[in-house]
Amino acid sequence: MKNPYEVLGVSPNATDEEVKKAYRNLARKYHPDKYRDSDLADLASEKMKEINAAYEEIQKLRAGGNKSSNAGGNAYNGNPRTNGSSDARFAEVRRLINANEIMRAEQILRGMEPTMQNAEWYFLMGCVVYKRGYFVDAQKMFDRACSMDPYNTEYRAARDQLHAQTANYGSGYRTTSSSDQTCDCCLKLACADCCCEMMGGDLIRCC
Length: 207
What we know:
Layout: H1 4-8, H2 16-30, H3 41-63, H4 88-98, H5 102-110, H6 119-131, H7 135-148, H8 153-166, H9 184-198
């Protein structure tokens, strides 16, 4: 793989915000939707893959501590696929979700001050409510996370995966304020699989 900093056109000493800005500018420039009916569609798609891979590689490097001492201080120390949120509570929430300690994870999220309700907060809350079987609420949370950080590949993957995996379960999705339900067994199975994959695993191999 090429040097990820060279791909994004930034210095290894660039702050996290500068890296993100460079990534977003390139993503806008080479997004495949802009070249859908063009002969350059394939080239743009390959370039977009290279840009995404470079950005994710930098995120992983910085999450692992391979970060310049004068760079911005918002690296995430948990799952390297995240958007770089520095608050340790987010890392703890991810750990709790992976451990299926959903109630505790939700308590931490709901106890966070309003200023901390960023894209990562909405994504993790979406994982929590989805694992509880509230598909509609989860979709709203994922949509909000994507709107706040539209170039985060993890958030987009979760949102799209939710659309795909719930498409076969009819329209009776549960919400926190609705009693309309599908088969509870199906809900729990789909819910567990989707959340498992969102956090890096796979429960139902055929999905």
